[in-house]
Design goal:
Elements lengths: L3 H52 L2 H19 L10 H23 L19 E6 L2 E6 L6 E6 L10 H9 L4 E4 L12 H8 L5 E7 L1 H13 L7 E7 L14 E7 L7 H6 L9 E5 L23 H20 L1
Parallel strand pairs: 3-4, 3-5, 5-6, 6-7, 7-8
Antiparallel strand pairs: 1-2, 2-4
Helix pairs in contact: 1-2, 1-3, 2-3, 4-8
């Protein structure tokens, strides 16, 4: 007959080992799942937005590389089982899981809207306009002697900078240098020094007009308010594409303002545009593209949350380009 004390000692000795083997196992499977998700998100972005990764600001490609490397490292960290004496490594693994989840979420959310035709065709040089693309900007330069009034433009959030080439090219064809910023990870608030860099690069420009689409219009408004009284190369005009300022500039902003919006915009809605009137100078001009939506201010396809258009994209683009060109021409005299 077996001693009761002996029979009780076996389970007591095995219990902790069983608990130790199961806990690391759960962590390992979670780690592998997160690593796989990171690899899949990077692959998804590369397959669906490769042109923007190549043509966009280098920071997004760096972010993808970091996410890929982090996912691989986290996945490989599960090759060795953890023991009770390696708790620090377990904490490190948990921290890596958290960092990977955050990076994956950021990369997925930042996936850019890729430029479509006719914007891509507008990126080609011809006898009228020379198009040059750099890591942080796109420049459309008239082949004839350019005007001393130039346009600096900030793209909407997460939108491929090339998407604005078609709508802004008529301004370049009319004789004005057009600089389109490439923002870090597609966020205008990370490119707040881009305008000052452009001014330094074009010393022959004596008057600037700044513009922006959606969130970027808010940054453009800040640039206009900060530089409208500069003694050298001041900002004389502000173009707001489906946008409005974040603060009251009604008394401080002296630059001429043109606000162009769409009647069916589901993001910068007509109600929001109307509510922002008090934040802009009294002389602001408001132009409404009847039937236009938020995504019609560039060529990058439909945008989630937007309204339903009742006009063609081509017709809307023509109106936006015409209104912009008229204002630039007026401010150049």
């Amino acid at each position: 007959m077996t001693d009761a004390s002996d029979s009780g000692s076996g389970p007591v000795a095995e219990g902790p080992e069983a608990g130790q083997s199961q806990s690391p196992g759960v962590i390992a499977w979670v780690t592998r799942a997160v690593a796989a998700a990171g690899l899949l998100v990077v692959l998804w972005v590369l397959l669906t937005a490769w042109p923007v990764v190549v043509h966009g600001h280098p920071l997004y490609a760096v972010l993808l590389t970091i996410t890929l490397a982090l996912s691989v490292y986290v996945g490989l960290s599960t090759r060795r089982p953890l023991s009770e004496r390696r708790r620090r490594r377990r904490v490190l693994r948990i921290l890596l899981i958290g960092a990977s989840v955050a990076a994956i979420g950021v990369v997925a959310w930042l996936k850019p809207f890729t430029a479509q035709e006719p914007a891509l065709a507008a990126m080609a040089s011809d006898p009228k306009v020379t198009v040059a693309e750099y890591p942080t900007q796109i420049v459309l330069t008239p082949t004839a002697t350019p005007s001393t009034t130039a346009l600096f433009f900030q793209p909407g959030a997460r939108v491929d900078a090339r998407a604005y080439a078609a709508v802004l090219r008529p301004v370049a064809e009319a004789g004005h240098v057009v600089v389109i910023a490439k923002q870090p990870v597609g966020i205008a608030f990370l490119a707040t020094t881009a305008f000052e860099s452009a001014r330094a690069a074009y010393p022959d420009v004596t008057r600037w007009i700044v513009g922006g689409h959606s969130l970027a219009g808010t940054v453009a408004a800040i640039d206009a308010d900060d530089h409208d009284s500069d003694a050298t190369a001041p900002v004389v005009g502000l173009l707001l594409y489906a946008s409005y300022p974040a603060t009251d500039m009604s008394s401080s902003l002296t630059a001429d303002v043109l606000s162009i919006s769409g009647s069916e915009d589901g993001l910068a809605t007509p109600a929001k545009i109307d509510a922002s009137r008090a934040d802009l100078p009294r002389g602001t001009t408001y132009t409404v593209v009847e039937g236009g939506v938020h995504a019609f201010f560039g060529d990058y396809g439909p945008q989630p949350g937007d309204g339903t258009p009742t006009i063609t994209h081509d017709a809307a683009r023509t109106q936006i380009s015409s209104a912009s060109l008229d204002r630039v021409a007026t401010l150049s005299r």
